[in-house]
Design brief:
Layout lengths: L1 E9 L8 E3 L1 E5 L2 E2 L5 E4 L5 E2 L11 E5 L4 E5 L5 E5 L1 E10 L2 E9 L2 H9 L4 E4 L13 E5 H11 L13 E4 L14 E3 L2 E10 L17 H9 L9 E10 L1 E4 L3 E4 L1
Parallel strand pairs: 13-14
Antiparallel strand pairs: 1-2, 1-14, 1-19, 3-4, 3-18, 5-6, 5-12, 7-8, 8-9, 10-11, 11-12, 13-17, 15-16, 15-19, 16-17
C-alpha cells in the first residue's frame, strides 16, 4: 500500500469550523493545536456541533506561542485576545469526567450570543477528542468518500463532514480498515490505527453552515451496518502516535 496525504485538518476549538493546513506537527498527543479547547453548557456538559450545528460557522485560530485565540463569525466580526485561565471545573465529556480550566475572556459570551444558549469555553488537559486515551489522530481514505458518494447518488462528499485529521489518496474503498494494529508512516510521523471511528449526526451537516443536508447515516447503515468494526457505522480509523514528526500535504503514507 502506498498513498499520499490529501488533506490535513484540525480545529483549535472542538465543534467549530475545521481549519485546513498545508503542514502540521504530529506529537504524541496528536496534531499539534487540535481541539485544545471545547465548550460546556450551564451543567458543565460538553457541547459540540452535534447538537448545535451552527457552531461550524465560527472559524477559530490559535497561536500557541503567543497564546492568542481568534474567532471569526459569519458576519465578519473577529475576536482576538490572549488566553487567560481562571478557575477549573469537572466537565462531563461523553460520560467521562474531565478536569478542565475555564478560559476567561470575551469568547464565551460571543459564542453564547451567536448560538442562542449559555456556553463557556474551557481548556482541556490534552486534545479534546472522543477517544482521549487511544485516539490521538484520525485518518480517512478518499476512496471511502467515493464509496459513500456513489451510494448517496451524489458527485462527491466533502471530507470535512467527517472531521478527520488526515485524508489519504491512493487507497481502495475502506482500505484503511485493514490497518488496525499496523504501523503506518505518514510523512515523518508513525501512527498505529487502534479502531474504527463510528459516526453520528455531525456527518449529516453541511460543514459550511452546520445545516443537515445529506443523510450519511442512512447510507452508512445501508452498507456498513454489518461490517465487523470496533464502533457502529464505521467510517475511517483513529490511531495512536508511535513516532512524532512533521506531515505535509502530498507526503507519502505507507504501511511498514
Amino acid at each position: 500500500m502506498s498513498g499520499r496525504v490529501a488533506w490535513i485538518s484540525h480545529c483549535p476549538v472542538k465543534g467549530l469550523s475545521l481549519r485546513q493546513l498545508d503542514e502540521c506537527q504530529v506529537t504524541e498527543a496528536g496534531v499539534a493545536g487540535d481541539r485544545q479547547f471545547f465548550l460546556v453548557d450551564e451543567n458543565d456538559r460538553l457541547v459540540n456541533s452535534k447538537g448545535l450545528g451552527i457552531l461550524q460557522q465560527i472559524v477559530p485560530r490559535y497561536d500557541d506561542q503567543a497564546e492568542l485565540l481568534t474567532l471569526t463569525f459569519p458576519d465578519g466580526t473577529t475576536l482576538s485576545h490572549h488566553v487567560h485561565l481562571n478557575g477549573a471545573l469537572d466537565a462531563q465529556f461523553w460520560g467521562t469526567s474531565v478536569h478542565v480550566r475555564v478560559v476567561e475572556g470575551p469568547w464565551g459570551e460571543a459564542i453564547s450570543d451567536f448560538a442562542g444558549c449559555d456556553l463557556r469555553l474551557v481548556r482541556a488537559p490534552g486534545p479534546a477528542t472522543d477517544r482521549m486515551r487511544s485516539g490521538a489522530t484520525t485518518l480517512l481514505g478518499t476512496g471511502s468518500l467515493r464509496a459513500i458518494a456513489r451510494l448517496l447518488g451524489v458527485e462527491g462528499v466533502d471530507g470535512r463532514r467527517f472531521r478527520m485529521n488526515f485524508g489519504v489518496d491512493g487507497l481502495a474503498e475502506h482500505e484503511e480498515d485493514e490497518w488496525l494494529g499496523r504501523r503506518v508512516r505518514i510523512g515523518r510521523a508513525v501512527v498505529v490505527p487502534q479502531g474504527n471511528v463510528g459516526r453520528c449526526a455531525v456527518t449529516t451537516q453541511n460543514p459550511e453552515t452546520g445545516e443537515p443536508d445529506l443523510d450519511t447515516l442512512k447510507a452508512l447503515a445501508a452498507y456498513r451496518r454489518d461490517v465487523q468494526a470496533t464502533e457502529p457505522l464505521p467510517f475511517g480509523v483513529y490511531a495512536a502516535v508511535a513516532e512524532p514528526g512533521r506531515v505535509r500535504l502530498g507526503d507519502p503514507v505507507e504501511l511498514f
